[in-house]
Please model this.
Amino acid sequence: MTTTTPAESAAGAHLGHVVFISAAAAMGGFLFGYDSAVINGAVTGIQRHFHVGSAETAFVVAIALLGSAAGAVAAGWLADRLGRVRTMLLAAVLFAISGVGSMFPPSVQVLGFWRVLGGIAIGIASVIAPTYIAEVSPPAYRGRLASFQQMAIVLGITVSQLANYALNQAAGGESTNHLAGIDAWRWMLGVEAVPAVIYGLMALAIPESPRFLIAAGREERARAVLTEVEGTGVDLDARVAEIRAVLHSAHKPQLGDLRGGRFGLLPIVWIGIGASVFQQFVGINVIFYYSSLLWQSVGINESNSLLISLSTSIINVIGTVVAMLLVDRIGRKPLALAGSTGMALALGAAAWAFSYRHGADGHATLPSLQGTVALVAAHVFVFCFAFSWGVVVWVLLGEMFPNRIRAVALSVAASAQWIANWAVTVSFPSLSNWDLSAAYVIYACFALLSIPFVAFCIRETRGRALEEMG
Model:
């Protein structure tokens, strides 16, 4: 029989409030997902409007990811100096400016600039949300609450694909057609300003992290926030003393603090980087950034390709819900291992199906059987990623590092993730033109390699307090 501790009962009584502030922080993840994936619907219109090919397309899509890497590195520094909430507000402003700027670029190069600015906001949001949620969540619920980040990301992806499809249909099935005198693809990019404003307003409604408040000498406010999120049954003196002891035992985290071990960085930092890189090298963002072009390259028209993108986004949401239900019940490692296995099989099936593509660019097709296998494999791949690596990596990055280096280590790991994302994104158009099947063989190999990585390198963090991470 399972017993509930007084601390868990108190946390449960205040769970509704913790859910709200975690969801508000995770709104940055929604914008992260929206901004990342919205280009999928706009890319055909951008190609036609600016008369650019695969190289320029890769530039526009991937350049935001370099901005994301820079934003992820800066986020730890910003979070420790401005505070978590002010850093969220900065990200909201950058998202809004990027959305409006991307709507009216005079050239593809200027569009790239606005994409970089939005990428910086994505990088900041990718770090600040898991950091904040991990710091305000009671240990008994931290895994599920940390999963809000990934849920928000996949909802942002889904809403962006829904908006893209709706705008495409309203414009007669062509993203270069006009709506209210403006190209549909411009509307796709500009609508981001609306959730950016909502994010900023929600950030104004949540409290600062108690760990940041104690570090800043605002102990009374920290006690009030701890009462809000952990309940009146918690021994505040003990909790404040615990956090203060951890903070006082270490200086302000710097990049130099990550040095050590055999290969220049602490082993735990390499593990965080490895998890981030594997998450991207399975090719998940090919689906979210290029699926419109991918399906058009095998004979599906623009409108139906956007509909497929929407359906895979919905599968992504379903898989994320499954992960949220299981991450605190069965742990992080079992989910990651199951997901890696499923992804490897699905990617292998997709590689086999795409090997039957025939015809020249713009007129290529797949036989009926192989086309069906490719569609099913893509959806299975997304589901397996969503219930495992999509959630588990963000939960782990918020939990696995010792307190003394958490913010800066998370920044470095997230930056590595964006660089890996950029490498996959910028290489896919050329890889697909060369051999689409070979590209998916590469992604399948990385899915296979992730299995021993999880088995031998990842340590289970379920149910452990952040102060226990050493």
About this structure: The domain at 7-206+250-468 is CATH 1.20.1250.20 (Growth Hormone; Chain: A;). The first helix runs from residue 6 to 13.
